[in-house]
Design goal:
The chain is of the alpha/beta class. The protein has one domain: Rossmann fold. The protein has 8 helices and 6 strands, in the order E-H-E-H-E-H-H-E-H-H-E-E-H-H. Strands 3-2-1-4-5-6 form a 6-stranded parallel sheet, sandwiched between helices. Helix 2 links the parallel strand 2 and strand 3. It is globular. The protein starts with 5 loop residues before the first strand and ends in a 6-residue tail after the last helix. The structure holds adenosine-5'-triphosphate and magnesium ion (MG). The site of adenosine-5'-triphosphate has 19 residues, from helix 1, strand 4, helix 5 and helix 7.
């Protein structure tokens, strides 16, 4: 019989993806001995898309592919893009669990603070353990009822919003995103302002 795997589900808008995402995925994989960490690109990050323009999903997916391509066990999924509509993590968790895998939800400390606001959070809380990564400037979240693992990664003070500002200013993003992603942004004329 084929045994299920322990999979880290690392969701996000990845608009754009950056080195902080990559180091977070690698840190969680080794800290929790996961078979794979999957970066799941949100189709419609519904808690953000009412606030600002989100780059087309095919661009975000292509950039996440560039981010992880050389990293064994770190993968990309278009599951939420294929499903379409607002991206609810609970539905993604259920799809992965239906394949027989154990799902560990991976979130930064900022995102963890909002877990109780996620769609069907009561159900989610019962189904997954959560790996929470320290993130500079964000305190440890106050949550009750969730099974949390604190992952002490080498925290990187990088965010997609920061990268969007640097790109908008025409400044170097050398410290925040791999060169291949910056070339992709420039080649496709991605802009956020
Ligand atoms: P934005 O500034 O647009 O919110 P972001 O950098 O927070 O972008 P998201 O796509 O919103 O990136 O985040 C996806 C997931 O990655 C979230 O769980 C978030 O907490 C986590 N994350 C993002 N950057 C880091 C980082 N530098 N260290 C640890 N976790 C991070
Ligand atoms: Mg964010």
């Amino acid at each position: 019989m084929c045994m299920g795997q322990r999979i880290g589900l690392f969701g996000g808008s990845f608009d754009p993806p950056h080195t902080g995402h990559l180091l977070a995925a690698v840190a969680v994989q080794s800290a929790l001995r996961l078979d794979r960490v999957i970066l799941v690109v949100a189709n419609d990050p519904w808690q953000k898309s009412t606030q600002r323009h989100i780059t087309d999903s095919h661009h975000r997916l292509a950039m996440v592919r560039l981010l992880v391509e050389e990293f064994e066990g770190i993968e990309v999924s278009d599951l939420e893009i294929s499903r379409g509509g607002p991206s609810y993590t609970i539905e993604t968790v259920n799809e992965l669990r239906d394949r027989g895998d154990e799902v560990i939800l991976v979130v930064g400390a900022d995102a963890a603070a909002g877990l109780d606001t996620w769609e069907r959070s009561d159900e989610l809380r019962e189904l997954v353990e959560v790996a929470v990564l320290d993130r500079p400037g964000y305190p440890w979240p106050e949550l009750t009822g969730w099974r949390l693992h604190r992952v002490k990664a080498e925290s990187l003070n990088i965010s997609s919003s920061g990268v969007r500002h640097l790109v908008g200013d025409g400044t170097s993003t050398h410290d925040s995103v791999p060169a291949a992603i910056r070339s992709y942004i420039d080649r496709h004329g991605l802009e956020w302002s």
